[in-house]
Amino acid sequence: MGALIPLPLAALFCFLVAMSLSLYGTPIAARAALRFGVVDRPDGGLKTHRAPVPYLGGLALYVSFVLTMALVFDFGQRALGLLLAATILVLLGLIDDFGVLGVWPKFLGQGFATLVLIKSDIAIHIGVLPEWANLTLTVFWIVGMTNAFNIIDIMDGLACGTALIAAAFLLAVAILNGQAPIVLMTATLMGSLAGFLKFNAHPARIFMGDTGSLFIGMMLGALAMVGKYDEVNAIGYLSPLLILAVPIFDTLYVMTLRAASGRSPFAGSPDHFALRLRRLGLPVPAVVGIAWALGAGLGALGLLNLYLEQRASTLLVAGAGLALVMFGAALSRVETPPVDASEGAAVRQARLNLAHWRRQ
């Protein structure tokens, strides 16, 4: 499509179509979820929202994205591979939203989706590294980003807005490098997220569930991998770490705190930085706004990093990392509700439970 009309107009068209489809499809997904009982119910404990809230918002994200791509995109190997990997994770998340999928089957499914991406030549390619190292980094990056957005989906609008901001900076990188296919895909994803955010912002009328969080995590991870970052700065490939720093930070943060307290890194807990900010008395919109501002600031640093010399780039990334460590250390002093390891199934499912803790 970009060959027929100017790329900026093509990107705007993709954004508007995807947003319109998302705005139209999200209420339909909500009604379907209510009809079939795919809802998150308050339990008087961690789930304190006032009424059942439907899941399946992730289906609206996925369908609006795929339909827009089908309308405007010329499908090649990479595009088809990306859509197949996305479909695998959407199906995986849908099963998990019904509460019948364990941790390890989910990791296995993510591994299959990553394999599809690699076979479609969507992978990390750092010239100074051997092929096996690039492939290993690809697996860790995709599985890590997929789960990072799953983990950060713990408050109304948090994961969706964070993803939208990160996608905007990935779009800017693609535009700067003239990567038309990446521009169109990223603009389409942004449109889907923008339409969904209207219904997911506080107070949320629908949740994206694992269906949505796994989908957007994989999409952003894959789009980040195929961007060009080293045209000026030889280590500009560190920019995605800044653009996607918020979900990366929260994932490493909660896993570190869980491990330090002798708990499994995969067990749910109220250790997320957003929930700790909430414990300080901040309302949900303020906490989410802080996370969005943090994502925007770090994303801007990611763009700046593209044009720095290597020494300045190293100092920038290290400085940003140190600032996040200090931020996390300060928040670690905030008291959080204890997690009883004897709760069994409830704890094993706490990742879902925590997604809506203290929303009201």
Layout: helices, strands, pairs:
Layout: H1 7-36, E1 39-40, E2 53-54, H2 57-72, H3 77-97, H4 103-119, H5 131-152, H6 158-176, H7 180-200, H8 209-225, H9 239-243, H10 245-260, H11 273-279, H12 284-305, H13 310-331, H14 345-348, H15 350-354
Antiparallel strand pairs: 1-2
Helix pairs in contact: 1-2, 1-7, 2-3, 2-7, 2-8, 3-4, 3-8, 4-5, 5-8, 5-10, 6-7, 6-8, 6-12, 7-8, 11-12
Give the rounded overall mean pLDDT.
89
Helix/strand/pairing category: mainly alpha
User: How many domains comprise the coordinates?
Assistant: 1
- Element order: H for helix, E for strand: HEEHHHHHHHHHHHHHH
Radius of gyration: 19 Å
Strand content: under 5%
Describe this structure in words.
The chain has 360 residues and is mostly helical. The protein has one domain (7-354). The protein is 68% helix and 1% strand. The chain has helices at residues 7-36, 57-72, 77-97, 103-119, 131-152, 158-176, 180-200, 209-225, 239-243, 245-260, 273-279, 284-305, 310-331, 345-348, 350-354; strands at residues 39-40, 53-54. Helix 4 (103-119) packs across helix 5. The relative contact order is 0.14. The model is unreliable at 341-360 (pLDDT under 50).
